[in-house]
Protein backbone atom coordinates (compact mmCIF):
# COMPACT_ATOMS: atom_id res chain seq x y z
CA UNK A 1 0.00 0.00 0.00
CA UNK A 2 2.79 2.32 0.95
CA UNK A 3 4.65 1.37 -2.17
CA UNK A 4 1.51 2.07 -4.22
CA UNK A 5 1.20 5.56 -2.74
CA UNK A 6 4.86 6.24 -3.41
CA UNK A 7 4.43 5.13 -6.99
CA UNK A 8 1.41 7.45 -7.38
CA UNK A 9 3.35 10.37 -5.88
CA UNK A 10 6.27 9.75 -8.17
CA UNK A 11 3.95 9.53 -11.14
CA UNK A 12 2.29 12.83 -10.16
CA UNK A 13 5.63 14.61 -9.83
CA UNK A 14 6.71 13.29 -13.16
CA UNK A 15 3.52 14.52 -14.80
CA UNK A 16 3.92 17.95 -13.19
CA UNK A 17 7.51 18.10 -14.38
CA UNK A 18 6.47 17.23 -17.91
CA UNK A 19 3.71 19.86 -17.78
CA UNK A 20 6.19 22.48 -16.52
CA UNK A 21 8.65 21.62 -19.21
CA UNK A 22 5.92 21.95 -21.81
CA UNK A 23 4.79 25.31 -20.38
CA UNK A 24 8.28 26.84 -20.00
CA UNK A 25 8.76 27.80 -23.70
CA UNK A 26 5.37 29.43 -23.66
CA UNK A 27 6.23 31.41 -20.56
CA UNK A 28 9.60 32.38 -21.99
CA UNK A 29 7.95 33.47 -25.19
CA UNK A 30 5.41 35.53 -23.25
CA UNK A 31 8.16 37.13 -21.20
CA UNK A 32 10.08 37.92 -24.38
CA UNK A 33 6.98 39.46 -25.93
CA UNK A 34 6.36 41.52 -22.81
CA UNK A 35 10.04 42.58 -22.82
CA UNK A 36 9.86 43.69 -26.43
CA UNK A 37 6.66 45.58 -25.73
CA UNK A 38 8.17 47.34 -22.74
CA UNK A 39 11.34 48.12 -24.73
CA UNK A 40 9.37 49.54 -27.65
CA UNK A 41 7.22 51.54 -25.29
CA UNK A 42 10.29 52.92 -23.52
CA UNK A 43 11.99 53.67 -26.83
CA UNK A 44 8.84 55.36 -28.10
CA UNK A 45 8.58 57.47 -24.99
CA UNK A 46 12.26 58.36 -25.27
CA UNK A 47 11.86 59.33 -28.92
CA UNK A 48 8.79 61.37 -28.11
CA UNK A 49 10.66 63.08 -25.31
CA UNK A 50 13.65 63.89 -27.49
CA UNK A 51 11.40 64.91 -30.39
CA UNK A 52 9.57 67.29 -28.09
CA UNK A 53 12.84 68.76 -26.83
CA UNK A 54 14.10 69.08 -30.40
CA UNK A 55 10.87 70.78 -31.46
CA UNK A 56 11.10 73.24 -28.59
CA UNK A 57 14.75 73.94 -29.38
CA UNK A 58 13.97 74.50 -33.05
CA UNK A 59 11.10 76.80 -32.14
CA UNK A 60 13.33 79.01 -30.00
CA UNK A 61 16.05 78.86 -32.65
CA UNK A 62 13.67 79.96 -35.42
CA UNK A 63 12.56 82.93 -33.35
CA UNK A 64 16.19 83.82 -32.70
CA UNK A 65 17.06 83.72 -36.40
CA UNK A 66 14.22 86.12 -37.20
CA UNK A 67 15.35 88.56 -34.51
CA UNK A 68 19.01 88.19 -35.50
CA UNK A 69 18.26 89.13 -39.11
CA UNK A 70 16.13 92.04 -37.89
CA UNK A 71 18.97 93.35 -35.74
CA UNK A 72 17.19 92.63 -32.45
CA UNK A 73 20.31 91.12 -30.98
CA UNK A 74 19.31 91.20 -27.30
CA UNK A 75 16.15 89.19 -27.99
CA UNK A 76 18.06 86.85 -30.30
CA UNK A 77 20.61 86.09 -27.56
CA UNK A 78 17.83 85.15 -25.13
CA UNK A 79 16.15 82.93 -27.71
CA UNK A 80 19.34 81.15 -28.76
CA UNK A 81 20.23 80.50 -25.14
CA UNK A 82 16.76 79.01 -24.64
CA UNK A 83 17.30 76.79 -27.69
CA UNK A 84 20.59 75.57 -26.24
CA UNK A 85 18.79 74.37 -23.10
CA UNK A 86 17.27 71.65 -25.27
CA UNK A 87 20.41 70.89 -27.30
CA UNK A 88 23.57 72.11 -25.61
CA UNK A 89 26.01 70.91 -28.29
CA UNK A 90 24.02 72.07 -31.31
CA UNK A 91 26.55 73.70 -33.67
CA UNK A 92 24.08 76.00 -35.43
CA UNK A 93 22.58 77.21 -32.15
CA UNK A 94 25.99 78.13 -30.79
CA UNK A 95 27.08 79.78 -34.02
CA UNK A 96 24.00 81.99 -34.22
CA UNK A 97 24.33 82.87 -30.55
CA UNK A 98 27.91 83.98 -31.26
CA UNK A 99 26.67 86.16 -34.14
CA UNK A 100 24.05 87.76 -31.92
CA UNK A 101 26.63 88.42 -29.20
CA UNK A 102 28.87 90.03 -31.80
CA UNK A 103 25.97 92.25 -32.80
CA UNK A 104 25.74 93.40 -29.16
CA UNK A 105 29.52 94.09 -29.16
CA UNK A 106 29.98 91.36 -26.55
CA UNK A 107 32.94 90.09 -28.51
CA UNK A 108 34.67 88.28 -25.66
CA UNK A 109 31.65 86.01 -25.15
CA UNK A 110 31.24 85.55 -28.89
CA UNK A 111 34.91 84.75 -29.28
CA UNK A 112 34.79 81.95 -26.69
CA UNK A 113 31.97 80.26 -28.60
CA UNK A 114 33.61 80.80 -31.98
CA UNK A 115 36.98 79.38 -30.95
CA UNK A 116 35.30 76.20 -29.71
CA UNK A 117 33.30 75.98 -32.93
CA UNK A 118 36.48 76.50 -34.97
CA UNK A 119 38.12 73.58 -33.13
CA UNK A 120 35.18 71.40 -34.16
CA UNK A 121 35.00 72.63 -37.77
CA UNK A 122 38.06 74.71 -38.77
CA UNK A 123 36.88 74.74 -42.38
CA UNK A 124 33.57 76.49 -41.58
CA UNK A 125 33.36 79.74 -43.54
CA UNK A 126 30.93 81.57 -41.24
CA UNK A 127 33.03 80.84 -38.16
CA UNK A 128 36.23 82.02 -39.82
CA UNK A 129 34.54 85.20 -41.06
CA UNK A 130 33.20 86.04 -37.59
CA UNK A 131 36.62 85.41 -36.06
CA UNK A 132 38.24 87.66 -38.67
CA UNK A 133 35.85 90.48 -37.79
CA UNK A 134 36.57 90.17 -34.07
CA UNK A 135 40.32 90.14 -34.72
CA UNK A 136 39.92 93.24 -36.91
CA UNK A 137 38.02 95.04 -34.15
CA UNK A 138 40.78 94.17 -31.71
CA UNK A 139 43.46 95.48 -34.06
CA UNK A 140 44.97 92.01 -34.52
CA UNK A 141 45.90 92.50 -38.16
CA UNK A 142 47.73 89.23 -38.80
CA UNK A 143 45.02 87.12 -37.16
CA UNK A 144 42.31 89.01 -39.01
CA UNK A 145 43.96 88.39 -42.38
CA UNK A 146 44.54 84.72 -41.56
CA UNK A 147 40.90 84.15 -40.66
CA UNK A 148 39.75 86.12 -43.72
CA UNK A 149 41.85 83.90 -45.97
CA UNK A 150 40.53 80.81 -44.18
CA UNK A 151 37.01 82.05 -44.87
CA UNK A 152 37.76 82.72 -48.55
CA UNK A 153 38.81 79.10 -49.09
CA UNK A 154 36.41 77.56 -46.54
CA UNK A 155 33.22 75.53 -46.91
CA UNK A 156 30.06 77.65 -47.20
CA UNK A 157 26.40 76.73 -47.32
CA UNK A 158 24.64 77.75 -50.51
CA UNK A 159 26.50 79.64 -53.22
CA UNK A 160 30.12 79.13 -52.19
CA UNK A 161 31.61 81.29 -54.93
CA UNK A 162 29.42 84.25 -54.01
CA UNK A 163 30.26 83.95 -50.31
CA UNK A 164 33.96 83.66 -51.03
CA UNK A 165 33.88 86.67 -53.33
CA UNK A 166 31.99 88.77 -50.78
CA UNK A 167 34.49 87.75 -48.11
CA UNK A 168 37.39 88.88 -50.28
CA UNK A 169 35.63 92.19 -50.88
CA UNK A 170 35.30 92.60 -47.11
CA UNK A 171 38.99 91.78 -46.65
CA UNK A 172 39.93 94.41 -49.25
CA UNK A 173 37.81 97.03 -47.50
CA UNK A 174 39.52 96.14 -44.23
CA UNK A 175 42.99 96.45 -45.79
CA UNK A 176 42.15 99.82 -47.30
CA UNK A 177 40.80 101.07 -43.98
CA UNK A 178 44.11 100.24 -42.28
CA UNK A 179 46.02 101.79 -45.22
CA UNK A 180 47.56 98.47 -46.34
CA UNK A 181 47.28 99.49 -49.98
CA UNK A 182 49.86 97.09 -51.41
CA UNK A 183 48.09 94.11 -49.82
CA UNK A 184 44.73 95.43 -51.00
CA UNK A 185 46.08 95.66 -54.54
CA UNK A 186 47.21 92.02 -54.41
CA UNK A 187 43.79 90.89 -53.18
CA UNK A 188 42.05 92.91 -55.88
CA UNK A 189 44.19 91.35 -58.60
CA UNK A 190 43.35 87.88 -57.25
CA UNK A 191 39.65 88.80 -57.13
CA UNK A 192 39.59 90.18 -60.66
CA UNK A 193 40.88 86.98 -62.24
CA UNK A 194 37.48 85.24 -62.07
CA UNK A 195 35.15 88.22 -62.06
CA UNK A 196 34.02 88.29 -65.67
CA UNK A 197 32.64 91.39 -67.41
CA UNK A 198 29.76 92.16 -65.05
CA UNK A 199 29.62 96.00 -65.22
CA UNK A 200 28.51 96.49 -61.61
CA UNK A 201 31.27 94.26 -60.26
CA UNK A 202 33.90 95.78 -62.53
CA UNK A 203 32.92 99.27 -61.40
CA UNK A 204 33.14 98.18 -57.78
CA UNK A 205 36.59 96.72 -58.38
CA UNK A 206 37.64 99.83 -60.27
CA UNK A 207 36.56 102.02 -57.35
CA UNK A 208 38.61 99.89 -54.97
CA UNK A 209 41.64 100.01 -57.26
CA UNK A 210 41.35 103.81 -57.22
CA UNK A 211 41.33 103.82 -53.42
CA UNK A 212 44.36 101.54 -53.48
CA UNK A 213 46.04 103.99 -55.91
CA UNK A 214 46.50 101.30 -58.55
CA UNK A 215 45.32 103.41 -61.46
CA UNK A 216 46.37 101.05 -64.25
CA UNK A 217 44.21 98.22 -62.93
CA UNK A 218 41.41 100.68 -62.13
CA UNK A 219 41.42 101.90 -65.73
CA UNK A 220 41.35 98.32 -67.04
CA UNK A 221 38.47 97.32 -64.75
CA UNK A 222 36.32 100.32 -65.68
CA UNK A 223 36.90 99.86 -69.40
CA UNK A 224 36.08 96.16 -69.15
CA UNK A 225 32.78 96.98 -67.45
CA UNK A 226 31.99 99.62 -70.06
CA UNK A 227 32.05 96.93 -72.76
CA UNK A 228 28.76 95.65 -71.35
CA UNK A 229 27.34 98.99 -70.21
CA UNK A 230 28.71 101.84 -72.31
CA UNK A 231 26.63 104.50 -70.55
CA UNK A 232 27.43 103.63 -66.94
CA UNK A 233 27.92 107.05 -65.34
CA UNK A 234 30.11 105.83 -62.49
CA UNK A 235 32.35 103.79 -64.78
CA UNK A 236 32.76 106.72 -67.19
CA UNK A 237 33.74 109.02 -64.32
CA UNK A 238 36.07 106.38 -62.87
CA UNK A 239 37.76 105.81 -66.21
CA UNK A 240 38.29 109.55 -66.61
CA UNK A 241 39.74 109.85 -63.13
CA UNK A 242 42.08 106.86 -63.56
CA UNK A 243 43.34 108.18 -66.91
CA UNK A 244 43.80 111.62 -65.32
CA UNK A 245 45.89 110.17 -62.49
CA UNK A 246 48.01 108.30 -65.02
CA UNK A 247 48.69 111.49 -66.99
CA UNK A 248 46.79 110.22 -70.04
CA UNK A 249 44.99 113.49 -70.47
CA UNK A 250 43.49 113.11 -73.97
CA UNK A 251 41.92 109.82 -72.85
CA UNK A 252 40.81 111.43 -69.58
CA UNK A 253 39.21 114.29 -71.46
CA UNK A 254 37.16 111.94 -73.63
CA UNK A 255 35.77 109.93 -70.72
CA UNK A 256 35.23 112.93 -68.45
CA UNK A 257 33.24 114.64 -71.18
CA UNK A 258 31.08 111.54 -71.48
CA UNK A 259 30.68 111.35 -67.68
CA UNK A 260 29.55 114.99 -67.38
CA UNK A 261 27.20 114.59 -70.34
CA UNK A 262 25.67 111.50 -68.69
CA UNK A 263 25.47 113.15 -65.27
CA UNK A 264 25.61 116.97 -65.28
CA UNK A 265 25.45 116.92 -61.47
CA UNK A 266 28.85 115.22 -61.22
CA UNK A 267 30.78 118.28 -60.05
CA UNK A 268 33.95 116.32 -59.32
CA UNK A 269 34.20 115.08 -62.91
CA UNK A 270 33.31 118.55 -64.19
CA UNK A 271 36.18 120.13 -62.21
CA UNK A 272 38.59 117.44 -63.35
CA UNK A 273 37.45 117.97 -66.95
CA UNK A 274 38.07 121.71 -66.67
CA UNK A 275 41.60 121.09 -65.37
CA UNK A 276 42.24 118.58 -68.16
CA UNK A 277 41.08 120.98 -70.86
CA UNK A 278 43.19 123.78 -69.39
CA UNK A 279 46.22 121.48 -69.26
CA UNK A 280 45.84 120.35 -72.85
CA UNK A 281 45.38 123.94 -73.96
CA UNK A 282 48.28 125.40 -71.90
CA UNK A 283 50.97 122.82 -72.71
CA UNK A 284 53.45 124.56 -75.02
CA UNK A 285 55.28 121.30 -75.71
CA UNK A 286 52.41 119.43 -77.26
CA UNK A 287 52.78 118.40 -80.85
CA UNK A 288 51.26 119.99 -83.93
CA UNK A 289 50.97 123.57 -82.70
CA UNK A 290 52.41 126.56 -84.50
CA UNK A 291 55.30 128.70 -83.23
CA UNK A 292 52.88 131.61 -82.84
CA UNK A 293 50.55 129.60 -80.61
CA UNK A 294 53.47 128.24 -78.58
CA UNK A 295 54.83 131.74 -77.97
CA UNK A 296 51.41 133.00 -76.88
CA UNK A 297 50.99 130.07 -74.47
CA UNK A 298 54.42 130.71 -72.90
CA UNK A 299 53.65 134.43 -72.36
CA UNK A 300 50.31 133.54 -70.69
CA UNK A 301 51.90 130.83 -68.52
CA UNK A 302 54.66 133.22 -67.44
CA UNK A 303 52.09 135.76 -66.32
CA UNK A 304 50.10 133.13 -64.41
CA UNK A 305 53.25 131.97 -62.58
CA UNK A 306 54.11 135.56 -61.66
CA UNK A 307 50.69 136.12 -60.10
CA UNK A 308 50.94 132.82 -58.20
CA UNK A 309 54.35 133.81 -56.85
CA UNK A 310 53.05 137.16 -55.65
CA UNK A 311 49.92 135.72 -54.00
CA UNK A 312 51.89 132.97 -52.28
CA UNK A 313 54.34 135.34 -50.55
CA UNK A 314 53.53 134.95 -46.85
CA UNK A 315 55.37 135.76 -43.63
CA UNK A 316 54.24 132.39 -42.25
CA UNK A 317 56.37 130.50 -44.75
CA UNK A 318 59.54 128.83 -43.54
CA UNK A 319 62.74 130.86 -43.86
CA UNK A 320 64.11 128.58 -46.55
CA UNK A 321 60.87 128.86 -48.53
CA UNK A 322 60.94 132.64 -48.33
CA UNK A 323 64.51 132.65 -49.62
CA UNK A 324 63.63 130.33 -52.49
CA UNK A 325 60.61 132.44 -53.42
CA UNK A 326 62.69 135.61 -53.35
CA UNK A 327 65.19 134.02 -55.68
CA UNK A 328 62.40 132.90 -58.01
CA UNK A 329 60.87 136.39 -57.93
CA UNK A 330 64.22 137.90 -58.91
CA UNK A 331 64.59 135.41 -61.76
CA UNK A 332 61.07 136.13 -62.95
CA UNK A 333 61.62 139.89 -62.85
CA UNK A 334 64.91 139.62 -64.80
CA UNK A 335 63.38 137.43 -67.51
CA UNK A 336 60.15 139.35 -67.94
CA UNK A 337 61.55 142.19 -70.13
CA UNK A 338 62.85 139.65 -72.64
CA UNK A 339 59.62 137.69 -72.80
CA UNK A 340 57.61 138.69 -75.85
CA UNK A 341 55.93 136.58 -78.47
CA UNK A 342 58.27 137.92 -81.13
CA UNK A 343 61.38 137.10 -79.08
CA UNK A 344 60.06 133.62 -78.22
CA UNK A 345 59.48 132.84 -81.90
CA UNK A 346 62.99 133.95 -82.70
CA UNK A 347 64.72 132.11 -79.81
CA UNK A 348 63.43 128.55 -79.06
CA UNK A 349 65.84 128.25 -76.13
CA UNK A 350 64.00 131.11 -74.45
CA UNK A 351 60.83 128.97 -74.49
CA UNK A 352 62.63 126.27 -72.52
CA UNK A 353 64.12 128.80 -70.09
CA UNK A 354 60.81 130.53 -69.45
CA UNK A 355 58.87 127.30 -68.92
CA UNK A 356 61.52 125.87 -66.60
CA UNK A 357 61.09 128.95 -64.42
CA UNK A 358 57.29 128.67 -64.61
CA UNK A 359 57.42 125.01 -63.54
CA UNK A 360 59.79 125.74 -60.68
CA UNK A 361 57.53 128.55 -59.43
CA UNK A 362 54.51 126.24 -59.48
CA UNK A 363 56.39 123.48 -57.65
CA UNK A 364 57.75 125.81 -54.99
CA UNK A 365 54.50 127.63 -54.36
CA UNK A 366 52.64 124.30 -54.24
CA UNK A 367 54.95 123.14 -51.45
CA UNK A 368 54.60 126.45 -49.60
CA UNK A 369 50.97 127.41 -50.12
CA UNK A 370 49.29 124.09 -50.90
CA UNK A 371 47.87 122.51 -54.02
CA UNK A 372 46.77 125.21 -56.49
CA UNK A 373 43.62 125.36 -58.57
CA UNK A 374 42.67 126.41 -62.06
CA UNK A 375 45.47 127.46 -64.40
CA UNK A 376 48.12 127.06 -61.70
CA UNK A 377 47.08 123.44 -61.15
CA UNK A 378 47.18 122.87 -64.90
CA UNK A 379 50.73 124.24 -65.06
CA UNK A 380 51.82 122.12 -62.11
CA UNK A 381 50.48 118.98 -63.85
CA UNK A 382 52.21 120.00 -67.09
CA UNK A 383 55.44 120.27 -65.09
CA UNK A 384 54.96 116.72 -63.77
CA UNK A 385 54.09 115.51 -67.24
CA UNK A 386 57.38 116.74 -68.69
CA UNK A 387 59.67 115.88 -65.77
CA UNK A 388 62.85 114.23 -67.05
CA UNK A 389 62.20 115.13 -70.69
List the helices and strands and how they pair.
Blueprint: H1 2-69, H2 73-86, H3 91-103, H4 107-120, H5 125-137, H6 141-152, H7 160-177, H8 181-192, H9 199-211, H10 215-226, H11 233-245, H12 249-262, H13 267-282, H14 291-312, H15 319-335, H16 341-346, H17 348-369, H18 374-385
Helix pairs in contact: 1-2, 1-3, 2-3, 3-4, 3-5, 4-5, 5-6, 6-7, 7-8, 8-9, 9-10, 9-11, 10-11, 11-12, 11-13, 12-13, 13-18, 14-15, 14-17, 15-17, 17-18
Question: What does this molecule look like?
Answer:
- By secondary structure, the chain is mainly alpha-helical.
- Among the domains are: 94 residues, Tetratricopeptide repeat domain (Serine Threonine Protein Phosphatase 5, Tetratricopeptide repeat, Alpha Horseshoe); 94 residues.
- 80% of the residues lie in helices and 0% in strands.
- The chain is built from 18 helices and no strands.
- Helix 9 packs antiparallel against helix 10, helix 10 runs antiparallel to helix 11 and helix 12 packs antiparallel against helix 13.
- The chain is rod-shaped, with a radius of gyration of 41 Å.
Features:
mainly alpha, Serine Threonine Protein Phosphatase 5, Tetratricopeptide repeat, 18 helices, 80% helix, 0% strand, rod-shaped
Amino acid sequence: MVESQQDNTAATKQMNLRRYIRQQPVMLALLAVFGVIFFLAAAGLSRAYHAQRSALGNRWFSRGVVDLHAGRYDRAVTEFRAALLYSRDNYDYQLNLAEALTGLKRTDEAYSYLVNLWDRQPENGVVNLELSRIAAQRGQTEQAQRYYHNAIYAVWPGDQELKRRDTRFELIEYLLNIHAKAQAQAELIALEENLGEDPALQKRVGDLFLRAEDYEHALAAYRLGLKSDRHNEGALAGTGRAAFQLGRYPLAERYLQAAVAANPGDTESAERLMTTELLLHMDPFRRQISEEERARIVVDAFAVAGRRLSSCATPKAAEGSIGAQTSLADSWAKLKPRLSEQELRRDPDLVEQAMELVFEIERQTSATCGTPTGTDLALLLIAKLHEGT
